[in-house]
TrEMBL record:
Top EC category: oxidoreductase
Family affiliation: Belongs to the flavoprotein pyridine nucleotide cytochrome reductase family.
EC code: 1.6.2.2
UniProt domain FAD-binding FR-type: residue ranges: 103-211
Identification of the protein by name: cytochrome-b5 reductase
UniProt keyword annotations, A-Z: FAD, Flavoprotein, Membrane, Mitochondrion, Mitochondrion outer membrane, NAD, Oxidoreductase, Transmembrane, Transmembrane helix
Species, as recorded: Malassezia yamatoensis
Cofactors: FAD
C-alpha cells in the first residue's frame, strides 16, 4: 500500500471497482500492433503414426458500504486535493471498463485485414477509447457474426473461440490470427468481411490461470491454428524475466508455408528458456526439424520428465484429429475428459496435462 495516500483512497478505489461492476452488470448493450508479417480443414489427418526422426455478492455489498462510509467521512474532512484527484484519475484510467464483457456480445469494428499466408489472415479490431480487451493469460474470447450471421444446421448462431495474438495488455487494438477452412462456417463468414464491418465478441473465457514459476518446466503441443493459445502463454513467459520456467514447444504443420507466427518463433528461440521443435508432414529438402506427426516417441524425446510430478505441465491445442492422437478430446468446455493418446502412453497423468 502506498503510505503517501490516505486509507480512504483505497476505499474509494474499491468503491470505484464495485460501482464499475454494478454498471457492467446492469448495462444491456455495449460497443466494441499488428503482427505485420502469420490444411485443408476437410482433409482428415491421422496423427498417431510414429515420427520419422530426421532428425460474490455479499462481500461486495459490505465492501461498498464500508467504502461509502469512508468516502463520506473523507469528503467531510475536506475532500480530495489536486494530487489525490490526479492519482484517482490514474486509477480510473487503469481500472476502467475493459472493451470486452464476459456476459454480453459487443460489436467491434474491423480496422484492418492482413493476409498472412495462403489460408490465414490477421483481423485487427478497434477497441474504443484506447481500452484494453480485458483478456487474461490464459483465456480466449468467443465470436459471432453481426447482422446476417452464420447459422448451424439447427438454425442456431455459430459461435467459435479465438485467442488474440497481441499481448492482453495492448490498448486500442485486438488481433485475431485466423485460418480459413473451405467448409468452415465461421471462417468462411470471416473471409467475406471487409474493413469497417463489425463482428460480435464476448470474453474473457478463462482457460488456465497461469502463474509465473508455478511449474519448473512446461511442454506446449500445437497443431496448425491451435498455436494461438500456446503463443499467448509463450508471450506471457517471455515478457517476464522473473519467470524461470523452461518451455518446450512442439508445433506440427503440414508444410513450411503453414507455420503460423514463424517470425515470432525464431525470435523466441534466442531466449534460453525456450526450445521449439517444428514437425512437418511434407518437409522440404534440407529441413532441420522433425518430419511426421507428434508421437509418443517424440513426446519422450523432447518433453520434460513426468518425474517432475506437479512441477511439470503440458498444454495441448490442435485440430480434432491431433487432439485425439495426443491427449484425447475435451468432453466439454468444463470437463477435460480422460487423458489418452501419446501423452498417456508416454507416462503423463491427467493432472499433468491441460487441453485448451
Ligand atoms: C481455445 C481455442 C482457441 C482457438 N483459437 C483460434 C485462433 O486464434 N485462430 C484460429 O484460426 N482458430 C482458433 N481456434 C479454432 C476455432 O475456434 C474454430 O474451430 C475454427 O476457426 C473452425 O471454425 P469454422 O466454423 O470455420 O469451421 P467448422 O464449420 O466448425 O468446421 C468445418 C470443417 O473443418 C473441420 N475443422 C474444424 N476445425 C478444424 C481445425 N482446427 N483443424 C482442422 N479441421 C478443422 C471440421 O471437422 C469440419 O469438417 C481455437 C479453438 C479453441 C478451442
Amino acid at each position: 500500500m502506498d503510505q503517501s495516500l490516505p486509507p480512504f483512497y483505497y476505499q474509494a478505489r474499491i468503491m470505484f471497482r464495485f460501482s464499475n461492476s454494478l454498471v457492467n452488470a446492469t448495462r444491456g448493450t455495449g460497443r466494441m500492433s499488428v503482427m505485420r508479417n502469420a490444411r485443408s480443414a476437410v482433409q482428415a489427418r491421422q496423427y498417431s503414426v510414429p515420427t520419422k526422426s530426421a532428425q460474490s455478492s455479499n462481500t461486495a455489498l459490505y465492501l461498498s458500504l464500508g467504502g461509502a462510509a469512508g468516502l463520506g467521512l473523507w469528503y467531510a474532512m475536506g475532500g480530495m486535493n489536486g494530487d489525490l484527484r490526479s492519482k484517482l484519475s490514474e486509477v480510473r484510467a487503469d481500472d476502467g471498463e475493459f472493451a470486452l464483457n464476459k456476459d454480453e456480445f459487443r460489436s467491434f469494428k474491423l480496422k484492418e485485414i492482413q493476409p498472412y499466408n495462403h489460408d490465414s489472415s490477421v483481423y485487427v479490431f478497434e477497441l474504443p477509447d484506447n481500452k484494453k480487451s480485458g483478456l487474461t493469460v490464459c483465456s480466449c474470447l468467443v465470436v459471432r457474426g453481426a447482422g446476417d450471421e452464420p447459422k448451424d444446421d439447427n438454425g442456431k448462431p455459430v459461435i467459435r473461440p479465438y485467442t488474440p495474438i497481441n499481448p492482453p495488455d495492448s490498448r486500442g487494438e485486438l488481433e485475431l490470427l485466423i485460418k480459413h477452412y473451405p467448409q468452415g462456417k465461421m471462417t468462411q463468414y470471416l473471409k467475406d468481411l471487409k474493413v469497417g464491418d463489425e463482428l460480435k465478441l464476448k470474453g474473457p473465457n478463462p482457460k488456465f490461470p497461469y502463474k509465473a514459476n508455478e511449474f519448473n518446466e512446461i511442454g506446449l503441443i500445437a497443431g496448425g491454428a491451435g498455436v494461438t493459445p500456446i503463443w499467448q502463454l509463450v508471450q506471457e513467459i517471455s515478457s517476464n524475466p522473473e519467470d524461470k520456467t523452461k518451455v518446450t514447444i512442439l508445433y506440427a504443420n503440414k508444410s513450411k508455408e503453414d507455420i503460423l507466427l514463424a517470425e515470432k518463433w525464431s525470435q523466441i528461440e534466442k531466449d534460453s528458456r525456450f526450445k521449439i521443435v517444428h514437425f512437418l508432414d511434407n518437409a522440404p529438402s534440407g529441413w532441420s526439424g522433425e518430419t511426421g506427426y507428434i508421437s509418443k516417441e517424440a513426446v519422450q524425446k523432447y518433453l520434460p520428465s513426468t518425474d517432475l510430478g506437479e512441477k511439470v505441465k503440458v498444454f495441448v491445442c490442435g485440430p480434432p484429429g491431433q487432439m485425439k492422437a495426443i491427449s484425447g478430446p475435451k468432453k466439454s468446455m468444463t470437463d477435460q475428459g480422460p487423458l489418452v493418446g501419446a501423452l498417456a502412453d508416454a507416462g503423463y497423468s491427467a493432472e499433468q496435462v491441460y487441453k485448451f
